[in-house]
Amino acid sequence: MKEKILTNVRIIDPSQKMDEIGNIVIDEKGKIKSIGKKSGTSKSAEKIDLKGLVAIPGLVDMKAFVGEPGFEYKENFRTLSQAALAGGVTSIVTMPNTKPVIDNVSMVDFIIRRGRDKAKVNLFPCASITRQMEGNQMTEFGLLKARGIIGFSDVNKTIQNSELMSRIMNYASDIDVLIMQHAEDYELAKNSCINQGEVATRLGLQGVSDIAEKIIIERDLSLLSEFPCRYHINQISSKNSLNVIKKNKSNGIKFSTGVSINNLSLNQNDIGEFRTFLKLSPPLRSEEDRLSLIEGIKNDLIDVIVSDHIPEDEESKRLPFAQAATGSISIETLLSLSLELYHNESLPLEKIIKCLTINPAKILKIDKGSLKEGSVADICVFDLEKPWVVKAEELKSKSKNTAIENRKLQGKVKMTLLQGEVVYSN
Amino acid sequence: MATEKKVTAIKNTPKHLLGIQNLSVLEAKEILTEAKFFIKLNRGSSKKLDVLRGKTQINLFFEPSTRTQSSFDLAGKRLGADVMTMNMSNSALKKGETLIDTAMTLNAMHPDIIVIRHQDSGAPNLLSQKVNCTVINAGDGRREHPTQALLDALTIINRKGNIEGLKIAICGDILHSRVARSNIYLMNMLGAEVNVIAPKTLMPRGIDNLGVKSFTDMKKGLDGCDIVMMLRLQNERMQGSFLPSKREYYEFFGLTPEKLKFAKKDALLMHPGPMNRGVEIDTKLADDINVSLVKEQVELGVAVRMACLKLYCK
């Protein structure tokens, strides 16, 4: 590979508190040689002028579903990586709720090989916390970690058994693995498909109170004080949960928290008359909850914004709301929809980018999300101002279940580099 | 005659009757006015009209029903439509066919009206997006049962002359009740004041935002009411324990002659049926023709459904 220089670009890299116009020099090995306004040039290098554009570290998405194996008709490695790169995402943590479930070493080998052959992004596979995600017996954390598993999650299932959860934390603390919990009490959430309240009452749907989420977070954080391990709450959705997090953080308990871009940008009223693409877990809640989540990011109570990318085929969504599948595709629109929070003055730009780059990288303990000299040149270049309209058929995912069809957004990815190579541009 | 009136409200609106929430006051009143004419017709000796001659009506019932199903059946036939009733609790759906597939299959047979009852809220809405005939909601999950509310309104108007200014209590299992929801919307729309009375576990969250006052005490809730609507305890929809026992429920929320005295002297009693006698209502009270409108509700149900079929099938 030839040396490359990205010139005249506004560089925003929260990992080194950088926000300035300058150059990025990428060496032959695809690593950052120098960066910033003082960055030099070299005559032999290939020049790419990015005037008027913004360069940030490639996004790190901590929660996405790839259909392989078992659900190739919903998404595969190729389509997922195309969608990711078009959205500026260069590192993806993939969920283990495939068929079969990724809960043993041989599955890990398969998924890593398959991902390497078919995907053009950095993949970090998760394994399940419990076998078959049944919540009964923990998986082989140590062996799985040694084979390259980045973290453990039962995805949309929650460890209900408190004794088991305490043992998981206790065991995990010793071998330094990341436990990612989906917080939902099964009994409180039984048969529910929407937030409890007026909207649920009007639509005649079984609602779930945010207490179902809060109660698990409270339990886990209590256990965590006894058994400190690397613990991450996948997605929170309510003001109540945030208050618990605030209280525990101020008591010195160490853990991290994520939120889905959907819960930051939409509320329960957007469901309208049974729009099943907005059936999500955790569910969209009230506007008050949404605003409090934004405050949570502002106050560093929430560390990560995830896409919670869940591709679903049309058949799974074209059903009565209660029966329809849960989730929406969102990896390709993750950055653009996040930028909406900047344009509508909800959050500073630097904060948004932090939650999409260096923060998840730190939690995962991976060498990504930064453009410091010497790091791999995974870069997302975007036009901060460009207006566009989300059209499902133009998105690259195999499934088209976007929750923000026809939404007018401002800011679009122009170019994505992976290890210094341009892998996407428009 | 009512049919000679030039009615316009429903003409330009979507041709589906999915819920009271989607109706305007004018549309609701138009249905009620039209229905009044059919009351007389149904009481006469010759009940058959040819308003819907040549039209095909399919009753698609995914949940068991006796009165609503037979009422729609009769209404269609009296208007001259060809009526086919499909009891879906034991058919293609059990073989894995989805609602949409079933709908598309039926749609290919060119029906003019599909009347649907389904256990899932929103199923009629979904259906209406996929077929090109009129869809009439005969009850979906716990969301809406518009024709029940309309027949309740007609029954009240028939007895009290008007709904505006009345105070109406709806008591019982509000949480699981589509009848309660549709009635709340319609009675509010027609100018009544609505109280809902239920034990806390059967009271949906956010109900006050629907424009009602909620009570857990029959005495307070029934105070000054002209109409008392009792709801059935929907045991089949209850998952888990909502109440300690039927006995305790009857003690506090069952309607007895004593509790009825909390309401106005000339208060009338309604129930959408089927009744659980001795659970939500005293059996003698249920049969007391001086206060109970239950039979009249069933009678007027046919008239209201005839009006809906006629107005929506164009």
Topology:
The complex is a heterodimer of chains A (426) and B (314).
Chain A (H helix, E strand, L loop, with lengths): L3 E10 L4 E9 L5 E5 L9 E4 L4 E4 L1 E6 L12 H10 L2 E6 L10 H14 L3 E6 L13 H6 L4 E3 L8 H14 L2 E4 L4 H4 L4 E2 L2 H6 L3 E2 L2 H16 L3 E4 L5 H12 L5 E5 H5 L21 H12 L5 E3 L7 H4 L16 H10 L5 H8 L1 H7 L14 E11 L18 E11 L2 E5 L1
Parallel strand pairs in A: 1-4, 1-5, 6-7, 7-8, 8-9, 9-10, 10-13, 11-12, 13-14, 14-15
Antiparallel strand pairs in A: 1-2, 2-3, 5-16, 16-17, 17-18
Chain B lengths: L24 H19 L12 E6 L5 H12 L3 E6 L11 H9 L5 E6 L4 H8 L3 E7 L5 H15 L6 E5 L6 H12 L3 E5 L15 E3 L2 H5 L4 E4 L15 H8 L3 H4 L7 E3 L12 H5 L6 H19 L2
Parallel strand pairs in B: 1-2, 1-3, 3-4, 5-6, 5-8, 6-7, 8-9
Helix pairs in contact in B: 1-5, 1-11, 2-11, 3-4, 5-6, 5-11
Question: Could you explain the architecture of this structure?
Answer:
Chain A has helices spanning 77-86, 105-118, 141-146, 162-175, 186-189, 198-203, 211-226, 239-250, 261-265, 287-298, 314-317, 334-343, 349-356, 358-364, and strands at 4-13, 18-26, 32-36, 46-49, 54-57, 59-64, 89-94, 122-127, 151-153, 178-181, 194-195, 207-208, 230-233, 256-260, 304-306, 379-389, 408-418, 421-425. Chain A has two domains: 4-54 and 377-387 and 409-425, Urease, subunit C, domain 1, CATH 2.30.40; 57-364, TIM Barrel (Alpha-Beta Barrel), CATH 3.20.20.140. In chain A, helix 4 packs across helix 7 and helix 7 packs parallel to helix 8 (239-250). Chain A is α/β, with parallel strands linked by helices. In chain B, strand 5, helix 6 and strand 6 (193-197) form a beta-alpha-beta unit. Chain B is built from eleven helices and nine strands. In chain B, helix 1 (25-43) crosses helix 5, helix 3 (99-107) packs across helix 4 and helix 5 (146-160) packs across helix 11 (294-312). Chain B has 314 residues and is of the alpha/beta class. The longest helix of chain B is centred in the N-terminal third of the chain and has 19 residues, at 25-43. Chain B has helices at residues 25-43, 67-78, 99-107, 123-130, 146-160, 178-189, 218-222, 246-253, 257-260, 283-287, 294-312, and strands at residues 56-61, 82-87, 113-118, 134-140, 167-171, 193-197, 213-215, 227-230, 268-270. Chain A binds chain B through residues 190-191, 196-205, 207, 209, 273-274, 315, 318-323, and chain B through 21, 98-100, 118, 120-123, 125-126, 140-144, 178, 181, 204-207, 209-210, 239-240.
